[in-house]
Design goal:
Layout: E1 2-4, E2 7-11, E3 17-24, H1 26-35, H2 56-72, H3 76-79, H4 86-102
Length: about 100
């Protein structure tokens, strides 16, 4: 896959370039989401000529949530959904969250 202009293209065995609609360059995706009323949460790369605004507090919250979920997935019974009922599964999540919090 290579970047050409504004769209991501793939080179197949015969050497033909095909533009993939599902993979767009980041600025197109961000513009589409902003038009839909969404907020940009992920910060820009430092090498960009025109940096975009983002909500630093929301990004920090998102980062902490992802880190917590990654720590939660380290518990085998939660990652593999071993509990048969939602009540027991929620209990396992509470116990694992308490252990993570105390750690």
């Amino acid at each position: 896959m290579t970047w050409r202009g504004r769209c991501l293209t793939t080179r197949h065995a015969k050497g033909h370039n095909h533009s993939r609609q599902s993979l767009r360059c980041p600025s197109e995706v961000i513009n589409h989401l902003c038009d839909a009323g969404k907020n940009v949460v992920i910060p820009f790369k430092r090498c960009r000529k025109h940096p975009r605004d983002y909500d630093k507090h929301l990004y920090r919250t998102r980062y902490l949530t992802e880190q917590f979920l990654n720590k939660l997935k380290q518990y085998r019974s939660i990652a593999t959904l071993d509990d048969k009922t939602a009540y027991n599964f929620l209990g396992a999540i509470h116990i694992a969250a308490a252990v993570i919090w105390l750690d």
